[in-house]
Amino acid sequence: MLKTLSKRALGVALVIVIAGVSVLFYCAFFPPLEFKIIIAVSSPLLVKGVTFYELAYSVSYTNRGVFDLTISGEIQTKIEGIREVDARAIGEKTISQPRFLLRVGETSSWVISVGVYETEFTPRNSLKIRLEAIAFLKINGMERTLTANYQFTGP
Asked: How far apart are CA 112 and CA 57, in angstroms?
C-alpha cells in the first residue's frame, strides 16, 4: 500500500512539473502581449483654402508575460468610413517600427500618422470611421501577427 501511495505521489509530482514546464515554454514562444489602439484623432488641416483631415492613432503594447520581450516589425492600417480613394491611399501605408525592449509589466505606446483625407463635413454629416491596425511582429525572434480595432466619429 505504501508503495502504491508513493507511486501515485510521484505521478502527481511528475504531472505538476510537466505542466509547469509547458506553461514556461508556452510563455516563451507565445508571450501574452496585449496590443490595442488607445485613441484615434482626425484633425483639420487647411491647405490652399481646402480643408483636409489628418488621421493619427496611438497603439500600445503591454507585456503581460514572464519574460522581457524584444519586439520589431511593421504596422499596417486598414480603414473604413471615408472615401474609397483616401482609404486605399492610407491602407497602402505600412509603418516600420524600430526594435525595442519591453520589460515584464511595461507598456509602450506609439503614435502613427496615417495620412490625410478629404470629406464634405458638416456638423450633421459626421463619419463613423473604423480603424484596424495589423502588427506583423518579431517577438524574441518568433513571428506573430496581432490585430487591434477602434471605431470613432470624426469629420
From this structure: 5
Per-residue pLDDT of 96-142, as tens digits, reads 888 999 999 999 998 888 888 877 655 566 778 888 999 999 988 88
In this prediction the pTM is 0.72
- Sequence-distant (6+) residues with CB within 8 A of 17 are none
- Of 9-13, 61-65, 111-115, the poorest mean pLDDT is in 9-13
Calpha distance 100→87 (Å, rounded): 29
> Please, what sign has the CA dihedral across residues 12, 14, 20, 23?
negative
| Helix and strand element counts for the chain (H, E) | 2, 7
CA pair distance 57, 130, nearest whole angstrom: 11
Distance CA 29, CA 54 (A): 38
Residues 99, 93: Cα–Cα separation, whole Å: 19
Distance of CA 11 to the CA centre of its chain: 41
DSSP 22: H
Question: Which amino acid is present at 15?
Answer: V
- pLDDT at 72 (0 to 100): 92
